[in-house]
Design a protein that fits this description.
Keywords: Membrane, Transmembrane, Transmembrane helix. The protein is an all-alpha fold and about 35 residues long. Helix content is about 85%, strand content about 0%.
Length: about 35
Amino acid sequence: MIVHPLVDTLLNVFVFVFMGVVAWLYTGAPTKLDD
């Protein structure tokens, strides 16, 4: 099964954004939970 180049690009972008959100949560969430 061949994956469409556009889909592959969107998946890469999604993973990049997801990792960014996870990193933000790990750095930002603890300070908010401490409140």
